[in-house]
Amino acid sequence: MAKRSSSYICQNCGAVYQRWQGKCDACGEWNTIAEETSAVAAVPASQRPRGRGRVFALESLTGTTDEAPRLVSGINELDRVTGGGFVKGSVLLLGGDPGIGKSTLLIQACAALARQKARVIYISGEEAAAQVRLRAERLGLAEAPVELASETSVEDILATLQHGVPPRLVIIDSIQTMWTDTVESAPGTVTQVRGSAQALIRHAKRSGSTVILVGHVTKDGQIAGPRVVEHMVDAVLSFEGDGGRDFRILRGVKNRFGATDEIGVFEMTGLGLQEVANPSALFLSERDLGSPGTAVFGGMEGTRPLLVEIQALVAPTSLGTPRRAVVGWDSSRLSMVLAVLEAHCGVRLGGHDVYLNVAGGLRIQEPAADLAVAAALISSLTGAPLPADAVYFGEVSLSGSVRPVAHMGARLKEAAKLGFKRAVCPVPGNESGSDSGMRINGVASLATLVADIAASGEGQKRKPAKVSQ
Ligand code: TYD
Ligand code: MG
Fold this sequence. Notes:
Layout: E1 5-10, E2 16-17, E3 33-38, E4 70-71, H1 76-82, E5 86-87, E6 91-96, H2 102-115, E7 120-124, H3 129-138, E8 147-150, H4 154-161, E9 169-173, H5 190-207, E10 210-216, H6 227-232, E11 235-241, E12 247-255, E13 263-269, E14 272-275, H7 279-283, E15 294-301, E16 304-316, E17 324-327, H8 331-345, E18 352-358, H9 370-382, E19 390-392, E20 395-396, E21 402-403, H10 408-417, E22 422-425, E23 439-442, H11 446-457
Parallel strand pairs: 6-10, 6-11, 7-8, 7-9, 9-10, 15-19, 17-18, 19-22, 22-23
Antiparallel strand pairs: 1-2, 1-3, 4-5, 11-12, 12-13, 13-14, 15-16, 16-18, 20-21
Helix pairs in contact: 9-11
The structure holds thymidine-5'-diphosphate (TYD) and magnesium ion.
Magnesium ion is lined by residues 102-103, 126, 173.
Binding site for ATP: 96-103
InterPro entries: AAA+_ATPase, DNA_repair_RadA, P-loop_NTPase, RecA_ATP-bd, Ribosomal_Su5_D2-typ_SF, Ribsml_uS5_D2-typ_fold_subgr, Rubredoxin_2
Domain RecA family profile: 67-217
């Protein structure tokens, strides 16, 4: 007989408690713990009948797959992030703020695949089928043979999916609106979300359909409720954007079938999401030429070079403890660059507030941005604008030396393509991308860079410390 047990589960992070409490110890949120009853785990393991399991066939690793293992949507920015298309039988979780464009992206992907004659099903738990159809019409996708439904019951959805040819792609928009009979909690609770996700994941593995679950995001950027779901799915993609601007970045957070450092860049237009094939041009489009405190960083996002502007403001502080504020970069890396500037280059910043911003709302994770950050900081401190035709990249070590970075050739080529003439970067080794046509100012240490910028600020002729090539 099923025994009803109830537990208290944090709706934010999924932590389980024996009794109610006001604050979740695991994630620190207040008032997120709710009682949930479940009829599962009714029979203790020791009392379950033994020897009743079904015998299943084992397969070898070298099996043949007759169908293409990946489903390529043809939307390059999306395919890049998934690692080259959707893998058969895989489950993806797409997270993002409300209104960022998750449903738009997915209906576009569905239409693209349906046009390639793949069977595609879009299940919306939030919008009526008519609303989804209206949007598709507005995007000019209405003629694509996507099969639509507005449903929230997981059992009904699974029964429908098992009917007819197995679909190649199933969209569940969103997982928070789904509910399953097998658990008793209300829709939207962690137990329901987990139960529904489990059932859908089981279906994906069994049928070979790719399932995409849409997940909402809480105010601090976590995928709400289904944090637990993140561990169950094959890939977690996050769709991000800057409220005021129209471009959106699709980022892989976890991917069992590809790299996680790839990004896809889109622009939200009146006609839906358009791919941005050349994001560097977009991120540099509103450049503030000739003002001190900005440096162009020659970065890499996955396998793709990406140029972005780094802005710094160094101003005398009016507080006892100077402020350090960073948007788009790691604040502990900023502290490190500041410490190296103080210790090895004689730059005193103890009495200055430091603000750092990566233009365009991009988030940079590479240590190669150290040199561009240092250049922007010194430029702001000295009031000397950096040359408009230079890009900066290089990792700074604690000893103040500038260390080589990967993919130098790709960075230089991208900069040359966008009209830059010189690169301030680590001293190149033998295999540098000298065929790019860029002039390379190799800097061996951060002190040389500081001396260079300070010298140009005094109106002297710019003298690169060490010019190779
Ligand atoms: P939507 O895909 O519904 O977001 P989500 O599913 O992530 O909640 O996107 C809705 C927003 O996108 C809405 O604010 C309007 C905007 N939008 C456009 O600017 N152009 C378009 O062609 C479409 C369809 C939406
Ligand atoms: Mg939506």
